[in-house]
Amino acid sequence: MRIPFLSMFVTSPFEGVQEHAEKVKACAWVFQRAMECIIQDRCEDFEHFREDIDKLETEADAIKRRIRGHLPKGTLLPVDKFQLFRYLREQDKVIDAVEEGLDWLSFRSAAGIPEVLEKDFMLLVEAVTDPIEELSKMVTEARKYFSNFSEPQRRVVKDMIRTLRQHEHEADKLEDSIKAKIFNSIEDPVAVFHLIRMAEIIGSIADHAENAGDMMRAMVAK
Amino acid sequence: MNHEFYVLITGYIFGFYMAWNIGANDVANSMASAVGAKAITIRQAVFIAGILNIIGATVIGSHVTNTIRKGIVSTEVLTDPHLALIGALSALLAAALWVSFATWKSLPVSTTHSIVGAMIGFGIMAGGFSVINWGKLLAVVLSWVISPVFALILGFVMFKVIAKLILTKRDSFIWSLKLSPFFIGIALFVIILSFLFKTPLGKKLAVGTPMAILIAFILSIILGLLGMKALSWHLKKKAASGEEDIFRRIQIGTSCYVALAQGANDVANAIGPLAVIYFLVKTGEIGTKVPVPIFLLVFGGIGIACGIAMAGHRVMDTIGKKITTLTNTRGFSVDFAAATTVMVASKMGLPVSTTHAAVGGVLGVGLARGIEAVNFRIIFKIILYWVLTVPAAAITSIIIFKLLQFFI
User: Fold this and answer.
1) Which fold has domain A10-219?
2) Biggest alpha carbon distance in chain A?
3) What would the mean pLDDT of B63-71 be, rounded to a whole number?
4) Is the reported ipTM for this assembly greater than 0.85?
5) In A, residues 32-61, which contact B (CB 8 Å cutoff)?
């Protein structure tokens, strides 16, 4: 406190947001591997992947808490503080959804995913991992915008948000077609319930990524 | 005479101690943005601050010294040489002790406010409350509020200008090079004007106000263009790119500017009371108008430089590590705002704090959304210590005055 100059500078929350986005990206990768594994008939590493996601989720949670806990009242940011928190919450929900997806899958892991649906599920997984990998890139570009306020840079961020929205739309369409296929090809009601819920959870990953994009859109609004 | 000789020696020691404290305390604030933005290394900062504080103190610093000495406390108290001697001595010691205490307890106080408080304490002891020129005091207190606000506005405007003209442009490097004469020139303009007005050197030249402005204007244009040439030559060799690289180099210049302004402003805090002691001992009395001898200013400047050299390193090391969100364009805006505020205030004879000007500059850039995270609330804490410093230093001064009366 002796140096007033120094005490004015607070650790930038954007650094934390970026770190958090990296965790999300790491999750996407593990999630994809886990899904590939479950689709191959003998998956021994599935529990291992679940543990990985669990660990990533805990770490991301710690980052989230650190950001919220280290922003004193009266801190001046280039964006509204609560916008930032809302963004962070959506970004965090992406990881939560991934974790939930793997958990749900594990409840009936012996049955796995029926062969007729394997391809569709893989497509859906790919469709949702693309947008969540984009998130960390979007945070980087947004930080650049907050440092130079240039219109071309703002456009870069806006374009990324648009891409997120398109990804979500595609994932939605895939989710719908999977659901229809499940009802038409699976007889066992328990399996139907498990698979429908599975498709919904995976679809929600893209929803949260899109929501995060919308929050970012509000932050870069002029 | 012999007895007074010892008093003078003591005065020198206390004055040096105060100057040392100023150097150790305030250098962090003047060099912080340059070190934080990685424009200069810690070693360079210590070197620049040391040398330029001495130059600023010697060449620009004489005017403020008068105001602190005879502005707030009426010269009535100086009619009794014995009392005045004890008073000046206790004021000097009280301010230095209070600043040392604050350093030990990690309180953000201003050396300027400490000496003003101590002088008030001395005035009250020597002549009662009536000798305090409350109007003048109010003006000084107001300047403490106005100076950070002024720096805040300057910092805000400067950053907005940079953002608008350079950062938002697609080819911001070219633009920053093109506009560099403007940014270099505007800083030089204020420095040259300060030199021309009211410094011993400027008085010798004896130029009128319009003439001085014209000279400063032309010189800053020429030097600004030369600066651009030097920049483009230098950068061509290094093949660096980006507007921050250009501002990094300009910021080396502005950190010199801050150090110069700081020397000009802060030397009075240590030398004001010392000058009173010096004249009392030499002439036996003190008039209403006494010029401060150059060698006292040099003495003060060296004291500040010593403080910087001994304590600056550690403080700036912390700053360099902790401030990571400050870039060169932001640092330039802060530097420019702080130095211009201090320079203008010291030309107006107002004792303002470099610390508060720097704080104002950062808040201005923060308000312009230039920094990823700035704690605005800290300003209230700082204000609390502004308010506390004056009475605390005054009371310390009163106690020391009472003690000294027994011995001298």
Assistant:
1) Methane Monooxygenase Hydroxylase; Chain G, domain 1 (1.20.58)
2) 73
3) 55
4) no
5) none
